[in-house]
Amino acid sequence: MFNTLRTGLLFSLLIIITTASSDNCVPHNGRRQSPIKIWTKAATSVFAPPLNWSYGYALKPQKMFLNNTGLSLTLTVNHKEPLQISSGMLNVPYKFEQLHFHWGEHDGVGSEHIIDGFTYPMEMHIVHSQNLREDIDKFVVIAYFFM
């Protein structure tokens, strides 16, 4: 299990970096969109200090809400303590918005992103945002792949 989690974290960091800097994303109404195809041999390794997950992540939420659309499952929470990530390559804290899952009809499809031509059966995104102005949001999405 540890190796699977470690692999997921490695891929997650690749997605964050690629999302922030890739010119290969399909444009949609002036914005860069998914899916992202990552070829690990072409990726550049970058040292990043560990992310700091706030204390709130260790505590039980007051309320949790699940929404299953049949195409994705989204979890949102009400929490006393702030849920945020900081440090790593982030200059400011980003607050938790929601997490959601992507899956397919069988194990050969499911993940939104593709690693070395491989699509995983399921992918989870933990979405964090930073509100700079009312009309602009910056997002950090951490992805975990499940086999």
UniProtKB/TrEMBL annotation:
It comes from the Eukaryota. The keyword Metal-binding applies. Its cofactor is Zn(2+). SMART domains: Carb_anhydrase. Residues 1-147 form the Alpha-carbonic anhydrase domain. Residues 1-22 form the signal peptide. GO terms for cellular component: cytoplasm. It is an enzyme of class 4 (lyase). Keywords: Lyase, Metal-binding, Signal, Zinc. Gene3D superfamilies: Alpha carbonic anhydrase. Coiled coil: none annotated. Its EC number is 4.2.1.1. It catalyses: hydrogencarbonate + H(+) = CO2 + H2O. GO terms for molecular function: carbonate dehydratase activity; zinc ion binding. Reversible hydration of carbon dioxide. This is Carbonic anhydrase. It comes from Photinus pyralis.
